[in-house]
């Protein structure tokens, strides 16, 4: 089976050379279409070897590779939708056309507006056709090999019930494979297996080792016989494996009242480990997180220094407060904040802050009011632990309590946690687990509707809260 990295490299290399060819073809056509260029250079060779064209030939393909990345085309490299591939390629060709036209061509001697439109349309076609043909060829070969079972992805079915064996049989007997190569079952409870199976059975306690040893790429979870809470607790324990986790759409509908179609020709399965966020939004969100956090840290560095000095002078203890939180796919990380409480604030164990919490220092109260204590969170964003907008990360201690009452909290780990969130804007700080669950409703609503526009809306309201001092 070809690896994901190798398949992605095929698309990247194919895009690079096809885009180079497109740029070269356009420059040739541009030479013969523009009489002024012919008069200035005299020959096609002199034009193509001119510094301006050479630089453009080197730079524009790299710029367009960046556009392709932002479009999300490289996120999923197997079983691509032909329609989405066509639309994505056309969209990026349109963006590339606009970039090249207004950077390199707009100052050329263009004889009339009609000719300019013709040139733009020609540029769009030249950027689209070679790239799409190469992509179509790579996708067609990969899809055919997956459907014919030449390529497959090692998969474990988590569960050993009759439902699990029937699902394995359906996947195995499909006329066109979906790529699931079921290599075994996972036994959830000791003693639950009362019959022999045609594939190896592994214990849930050894699943991490099994996934690494067998190179598992997918997990399919069968609903737990003890109900939805037990099923979601199981999903929660599987998230750190960082594998796509599939469940039946009817179970997903029970959780969210929405159904997502994962495959329209095979077994209907829903990937519960990832949000509905489009690949382009996911990439744009991450790039904007990196750019904004980098420049924010650069601009506010004097303010950070002043706050650090004030914290040190205000009370005994370190300037920064470091605490382990649970992030994307349940991966633990250390969050950094300015210390706003006494150093002995949790000497008796974890405790949430309240409105007039005596553990908060004098300066800490001001920092919390204007959310200044969270400015070091931008370092977590730059590192990739967090996003600027996303559900606030919690500690494992509280997550266990939340899951006991609201098993759907597992869905929060589909995205990176954030500095600010819809829950923080609409609800604010929670002083107990019930408050966390109430805030969770807003964060789940965000996950179901995540987009760059929604992020901007949340940032707008966050700025209002900071400016008006409604942080507490």
Explain what you see.
With 472 residues, this protein is α/β, with parallel strands linked by helices. The chain folds into three domains: 144 residues, no CATH class; 119 residues, NAD(P)-binding Rossmann-like Domain (Rossmann fold, 3-Layer(aba) Sandwich); 190 residues, no CATH class. It has 18 helices and ten strands. It has a six-stranded mixed β-sheet, sandwiched between helices. Strand 7 and strand 8 form a beta hairpin. Helix 11 crosses helix 14 and helix 15 packs across helix 17. The radius of gyration is 27 Å and the shape is flat.
Key features?
472 residues, alpha/beta, Rossmann fold, 3 domains, six-stranded mixed sheet, two-stranded antiparallel ribbon, 10 strands, 55% helix
How far is the N terminus from the C terminus? 54 Å
Succession of helices and strands: HHHHHHEHEEHEHEHEHHEEHHEHEHHH
Let me know the average pLDDT. Answer: 87
The largest beta-sheet arranges its strands as 3-2-1-4-5-6
As for the number of domains, it is 3
Q: How many DSSP-defined strands?
A: 10
Return residue spans where pLDDT drops below 50 for at least 5 consecutive residues.
259-265
Percent helix: 40-55%
Helix tally equals: 18
Structural Rg: 27 Å
Brief characterization of the structure:
With 472 residues, this protein is α/β, with parallel strands linked by helices.
Q: How is this fold's topology laid out?
A:
Blueprint: H1 4-33, H2 35-41, H3 44-48, H4 51-70, H5 82-105, H6 113-147, E1 153-158, H7 162-173, E2 180-187, E3 201-203, H8 207-214, E4 218-221, H9 228-238, E5 245-247, H10 249-256, E6 270-271, H11 279-299, H12 301-314, E7 320-326, E8 332-338, H13 362-369, H14 377-383, E9 387-389, H15 396-405, E10 418-420, H16 422-426, H17 433-448, H18 452-468
Parallel strand pairs: 1-2, 1-4, 2-3, 4-5, 9-10
Antiparallel strand pairs: 5-6, 7-8
Helix pairs in contact: 1-4, 1-6, 4-5, 5-6, 11-14, 15-17
